[in-house]
């Protein structure tokens, strides 16, 4: 199964809840005698309920419903209208991944329990498979098992790792990792950070110190600040991210556990509410189960169609 097909397949639980009900709404709305007319209240209510149940979010759902209502007179299929509006949501997210001279520095951040450490291992494996020489930096020096867990992932991915003793200054570990990358030609440096909330001032100050050290050693670093979100948490994760992202300078999202939720529409809410691009998606527990995000394949998978 190819990478994009795996993204589509990860939506199977969401499709079980979504597709049949959506098809029923479309069949009713697209009957010949209704096609060129505005949607009736019953259809709007059913569509709104369905979008919310998929965790697309209140604000995004309202925008989609409003856009569909204004465009319905063009005699377009309801299916095409909904897909188009969801596609527009992804088109308005932030800039593509920045380009920079090696070594690029990628900072992986987020709250506890989202899967940061496993994401770093999977990301290293994905990049190595694509021809890169990533270097993992174990900057979570507080959680006892974090470094050991990351070492296991590094070995599985076949990449090098820089670590320090438990309780060491994370910024010092980052300095060592960047120095090692310069000496060995590794690129990018993937920095696994400790889980933290935006309200923990001391931990956010520590993250800022890591950023300053990286910027001092490599122009423009960190080039990627990827916020890891758990898809199974849904809207609660978005609330946390809304506060965390500006403070940490986040410019991209990694959405984990998409295969483990029936509310996979949260990807749409993330793009709309956070205005940040989803870079990667976790589609399983194996080391190969992290894939680049494609909004087109995501939408195709959600609606079980090819454009």
Count of DSSP-assigned helices: 12
Major pleated sheet: 8 strands, mixed
Q: Strand order within the widest sheet?
A: 3-2-4-1-5-6-7-8
Supply Rg: 21 Å
| SSE ordering | HHHHHEHEHEHEHEHEHEEH
Bulk shape: elongated
Structural class comes to alpha/beta
Roughly what fraction of the amino acids lie in strands?
5-15%
Tell me, rounded to a whole number, the average pLDDT: 87
Into which percent range does the helicity of residues fall? Answer: 40-55%
In the predicted model, the low-confidence regions spanning at least 5 consecutive residues are none
Task: Give the total of beta strands.
Answer: 8
Instruction: Quote the distance from N terminus to C terminus.
Output: 19 Å
Architecture overview:
By secondary structure, this protein is α/β, with parallel strands linked by helices. Helices cover 51% and strands 12% of the residues. The protein has helices at residues 3-9, 12-29, 41-53, 58-71, 78-91, 116-129, 146-157, 170-184, 201-217, 235-248, 266-274, 295-303, and strands spanning 105-109, 135-138, 160-162, 189-192, 224-230, 252-256, 278-282, 290-292. Strands 3-2-4-1-5-6-7-8 form an eight-stranded mixed beta sheet, sandwiched between helices. Strand 2 (135-138), helix 7 (146-157) and strand 3 form a beta-alpha-beta unit. The protein is elongated, with a radius of gyration of 21 Å.
Question: Quick recap of the structure?
Answer:
51% of the residues lie in helices and 12% in strands.
Notable traits:
8-stranded mixed sheet, 307 residues, 12 helices
């Amino acid at each position: 199964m190819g990478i994009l097909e795996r993204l589509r397949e990860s939506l199977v639980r969401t499709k079980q809840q979504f597709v049949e009900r959506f098809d029923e709404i479309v069949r009713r709305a697209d009957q010949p005698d209704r096609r060129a007319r505005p949607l009736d209240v019953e259809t709007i209510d059913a569509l709104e309920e369905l979008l919310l149940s998929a965790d697309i979010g209140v604000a995004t759902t309202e925008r989609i419903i409003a856009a569909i209502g204004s465009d319905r007179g063009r005699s377009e299929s309801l299916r095409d209208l909904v897909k188009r509006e969801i596609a527009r949501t992804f088109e308005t997210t932030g800039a593509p991944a920045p380009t920079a001279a090696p070594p690029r520095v990628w900072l992986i951040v987020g709250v506890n329990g989202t899967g940061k450490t496993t994401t770093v291992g999977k990301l290293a494996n994905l990049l190595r498979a694509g021809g890169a020489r990533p270097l993992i930096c174990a900057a979570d020096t507080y959680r006892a098992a974090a470094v050991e867990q990351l070492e296991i992932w590094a070995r599985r991915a076949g990449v090098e790792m820089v670590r320090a003793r438990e309780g060491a200054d994370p910024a010092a570990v980052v300095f060592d990792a960047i120095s090692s990358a310069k000496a060995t030609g590794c690129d990018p440096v993937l920095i696994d950070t400790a889980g933290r909330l935006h309200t923990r001032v001391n931990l956010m100050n520590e993250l800022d110190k890591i950023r300053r050290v990286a910027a001092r050693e490599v122009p423009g670093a960190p080039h990627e600040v990827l916020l890891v979100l758990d898809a199974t948490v849904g809207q609660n994760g978005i609330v946390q991210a809304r506060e965390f992202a500006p403070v940490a300078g986040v410019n991209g999202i990694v959405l984990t556990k998409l295969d483990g939720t029936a509310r996979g529409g949260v990807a749409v809410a993330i793009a709309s509410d956070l205005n940040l691009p989803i870079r990667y998606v976790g589609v399983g527990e194996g080391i190969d189960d992290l894939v680049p995000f494609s909004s087109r394949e995501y939408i195709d998978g959600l609606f079980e169609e090819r454009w």
